């Protein structure tokens, strides 16, 4: 068979990709992993007993909305990176802006507090376990999102893996917030950020090998 004939044969069998296929697959991956993540949190750590009371505390909503915004931004980024030729443009600002806001709130509250209270605002009670707890809760969504990416066509595998890690970690950190007793902004700005950065780095490393064509 000649090259021209082979190209014509392949072109004749080509079908258009359904619109929003990448978004649907990644959303399905999150929908499959999220209930498992909630189950891990509830069984392994437990929901805060005073959760209804904390709903009236502004810092609880900061702790919940901050990682949720990272998850949304990560979703926007990864569904773009999952398609060849689609640029991310300024979507990374969706990660940077909430991060900078939390750091600004944390620095302002740290400077406004008494010197003897500053150490507790940074270290809290759970700094030793927070990062790894977030990573563990993130794991189900991390696995499903990478599996979804594997079925798509990312041309930047490391960046796509990192974005999938960020998306999963943002959702995982938001789930962990339903258990976490910490409310100090400096704690969130350090340990929650590290907890979300760990899956992002892992996603870049795994994605570089797993998602290559």
From TrEMBL:
Keywords: Membrane, Transmembrane, Transmembrane helix
Pfam families xref list: NrsF
Coiled-coil boundaries: none
Organism name: Variovorax defluvii
Descriptive protein name: DUF1109 domain-containing protein
Keyword Transmembrane: yes
Superkingdom of source: Bacteria
Membrane-crossing residue ranges in chain numbering: 26-43, 55-78, 90-111, 131-149, 158-178, 190-211
